[in-house]
From TrEMBL:
SUPFAM superfamilies: Glyceraldehyde-3-phosphate dehydrogenase-like, C-terminal domain (SSF55347), NAD(P)-binding Rossmann-fold domains (SSF51735). It holds the Pfam family GFO_IDH_MocA_C3. It comes from Infirmifilum lucidum. Keywords: Oxidoreductase. It comes from the Archaea. This is Gfo/Idh/MocA family oxidoreductase. InterPro entries: Gfo/Idh/MocA-like_OxRdtase_N (IPR000683), GFO_IDH_MocA-like_dom (IPR055170), NAD(P)-bd_dom_sf (IPR036291). The keyword Oxidoreductase applies. Residues 5-123 form the Gfo/Idh/MocA-like oxidoreductase N-terminal domain. GO terms for molecular function: nucleotide binding; oxidoreductase activity. Residues 131-253 form the GFO/IDH/MocA-like oxidoreductase domain.
Length: 337
């Protein structure tokens, strides 16, 4: 079978992870090149993976061996880089969120459709075994009719400098909680109709200074009658903390834990778990399956499992959240397409 030539543009932490996965773990993919504006980083990564190094994105796009580009740069660069890749005839995988604004997201979705090229957004939790099993059990009717979605998302600390500026990152709702918005749609199986947000910047002065929030509570109403609550925090002193529940009329499905459930010690004082399960231990395999799914969609000419439209829906929810914060009231989620 034909192998898909792939390049990774942007070699921060997540970009390097994708590059290594594409080099060693994804069938029928061939990492051709990596690109970063930091020349030493581009060259050292390329040498390690034995591929070409670029510091100029346009030169990478002119490489005839590249069939698809992974855009893993800061969010504010996504729109321009996705459009340029599509115009160069390349399929595109973009890390979440798809863009900073709804207008930008609509533009890239339409351009991908017009070009007849694949556009996939990186919400890797959909490929996590626990979340997949939760969705299967919900769809099977095991918990009856879903009535409530409950979610806790806490990061261990403040994001990098650029990500603290909502104009560049979309703020807490896109930079951090877009995963949770996508998972809400995935598990509930319905679009979000309305949001009502309360929150503030109470943890980090630098986040407050940029106009972002670091502690929020989001109330959802879904079109199918399910209600939801999402609590998000930029600080969890013991590490990454993610928990999700879907309550049904006949039961509840639980996903995630702030401790590693694989080992526990039971003593007279109670049961003690091993400790925090960090992000990469939990989701590395999901990243592998996500990247494989994108390559398969190219080879089989099928729709990517997480489409540009899915990415747009999340940005629409995030913009409604910001409007709710500004106006202090429930806000309908406006869908553009």
């Amino acid at each position: 079978m034909k192998r898909v030539g792939v390049a990774v543009a942007g070699l921060g932490r997540i970009g390097r992870v994708h590059a290594e996965i594409l080099s060693y773990r994804v069938e029928n993919a061939r990492l051709v090149a990596v690109m970063d504006v930091v020349e030493d980083l581009a060259r050292s990564t390329a040498e390690k993976l034995k591929v070409k190094a670029y510091t100029d994105y346009d030169k990478l796009l002119r490489d005839g061996e590249v069939d698809a580009v992974f855009v893993t740069t800061p969010t504010y660069l996504h729109h321009d880089m996705i459009v340029r890749a599509l115009e160069a005839g390349k399929h595109v995988f973009t890390e979440k969120p798809i863009t900073v604004t709804v207008d930008e997201a609509v533009d890239v979705v339409r351009k991908a459709e017009k070009a007849g090229l694949k556009l996939m957004v990186g919400y890797m939790r959909r490929f996590d075994a626990a979340y997949e099993e939760a969705r299967r059990r919900i769809l099977s009717g095991e918990i009856g009719r879903p009535v409530a979605f409950l979610n806790i998302a806490r990061d261990p600390g403040a994001p990098p400098g650029w990500a603290q500026d909502p104009k560049l990152s979309g703020g807490i709702f896109l930079d951090m909680l877009s995963h949770d918005f996508d998972m809400a749609r995935f598990l509930v199986g319905s679009e979000v109709r309305k949001v009502y947000v309360s929150g503030a910047a109470v943890l980090y002065d630098e986040i407050r200074a940029k106009g972002d929030l670091d502690l929020v509570n989001v109330n959802f109403e879904f079109e199918n009658g399910v209600y939801g609550v999402l609590h998000g925090s930029r600080k969890s002193v013991f590490g990454y903390d993610l928990r999700t529940e879907v309550l049904g009329t006949e039961g509840t499905v639980y996903v995630g834990s702030h401790v590693d459930p694989n080992l526990a010690i039971g003593v007279k004082s109670g049961v003690v778990f091993r400790g925090v399960q960090w992000f990469w231990a939990r989701f590395y395999d999901a990243y592998v399956r996500e990247d494989q799914a994108f390559i398969d969609s190219i080879l089989n000419d099928t729709h990517p499992p997480i489409s540009g439209l899915d990415g747009l829906r999340v940005v629409e929810i995030a913009e409604a959240c910001w409007k709710s914060v500004r106006e202090g009231r429930p806000v309908d989620v406006e869908r553009r397409t």
